[in-house]
Design a protein that fits this description.
single chain; 266 residues; alpha+beta; 5-stranded mixed sheet; 12 strands
Length: 266
């Protein structure tokens, strides 16, 4: 829980802002239902349920490792006839039959790790699931292309994993990790930055959007890219956004003296 130290500074660098505290660009990115994931609080609601015969899902590194698949709100219709906790059949293009668990309460499908390791890249692979026409059975395919916004090339991936090994030996804030990932003058788009930071540490989109909105050293620039400006590190954060920090209790301002107190002081 964040709090204010005696010197008036925050006791933690990693804060989460309410939606009102996010910049327009950060909020729009955090609310994208296509990249909905576990722990997200700003995802835009689906206006009306629509019939879905096929879902396309980008696979992020943390799901690759866990062998899980996030069931987004937009995917709900495809599995509408399944129970809250049930085992389904996924038939793959290589005729392999998988039997993962579908848990609607956690919003996850479990048991896909072995298939991922053979068919998918570590981050940014695309998979599709369609109904087969048989009850409880679906067709699973790895798409020919990757998700351009979250795919991480081999060289960049090795560099980030190297940073993870070095940072794993000491406490490091997510803010510091963003500074490292944004060290290039070119910056990174939001979704690519989200994919990369999730290799270093599991980070929600609302957490990322909060840090980019809160600290003066991060800015939104050309090409829809977020950049790090080292010269602004000393500027800290925007004091006006403290009121939006989740869980932070700001000190009560000193009460204004009433007329009698003013007169007695004189």
């Amino acid at each position: 829980t964040p709090s204010m130290a005696e010197d008036g500074t925050l006791t933690t660098e990693d804060v989460i802002l309410s939606p009102d505290g996010l910049t327009e660009e950060a909020l729009q990115a955090a609310a994208d239902p296509y990249y909905d994931d576990i722990g997200e609080t700003c995802v835009s609601p689906v206006a009306e349920p629509t019939e879905v015969e096929l879902i396309s899902c980008p696979l992020l590194y943390h799901h690759y490792l866990a062998g899980t698949l996030r069931l987004r709100t937009t995917d709900a219709d495809l599995f509408a006839n399944e129970g809250d906790l049930t085992m389904i059949n996924l038939r793959c293009q290589d005729r392999v039959l998988l039997s993962p668990w579908l848990n609607k309460q956690t919003g996850l499908m479990y048991g896909l790790g072995a298939w991922y390791r053979v068919q998918m890249p570590l981050s940014g692979g695309l998979l599709t699931i369609t109904a087969s026409g048989s009850p409880g059975e679906y067709l699973l395919r790895s798409a020919d292309e990757t998700d351009a916004q979250t795919y991480i090339g081999r060289q960049s991936l090795q560099e980030i994993i190297g940073w993870r090994e070095r940072l794993g030996h000491k406490p490091t804030s997510t803010k510091r990790m963003l500074q490292i990932l944004l060290a290039s003058d070119k910056g990174l788009p939001f979704n690519q930055l989200w994919a990369q930071v999730n290799i270093l540490r599991r980070t929600t989109r609302v957490q990322l959007a909060s840090l980019l909105s809160f600290y003066s050293c991060f800015c939104y620039g050309e090409g829809n890219r977020w950049c790090f400006e080292p010269e602004k590190l000393s500027d800290g954060y925007d004091d006006a956004k403290l009121q939006f920090v989740t869980g932070l209790k700001l000190p009560e301002p000193d009460p204004e003296p009433d007329a009698e107190q003013v007169e007695s002081a004189e």
